[in-house]
Amino acid sequence: MRKTELGPLPSDLQLDVLLALVAGPLGSSALLQTVEDLRDRDVPLATFYRQLQRTADLGWIVADVADPAARPGRPERSYRLSTSGTRVLRSGIEAQRRRVAHAEAAGLSVERLLTEPRS
Asked: What are the residues whose beta carbons fall under 8 Å from the beta carbon of 88, sequence distance 6 or more?
């Protein structure tokens, strides 16, 4: 895993998880749906939950567990962005902006790419 001054470099899926949580905490099902909407495609469940756990292990998100007495069975988890997750997301967004600026400076028309119909 590559690193930045903030620690490990997040994967695209981890950045999408962080971005999905900007508006506020989400349960895992709502989080998965939001990430899939951002990506405009399905995300395999095993991949999603593995990256969700890694993102939490890195301290970028916090998993809050609901009161187990409120619902029998496995307690519901709600995920929220941590302070370090906010920094990592900002850094990731800035890195994308720099990539686009470098591409434009190199004569690559990112705008044309975005407006041309997909083949």
From this structure: 6, 7, 10, 18, 60
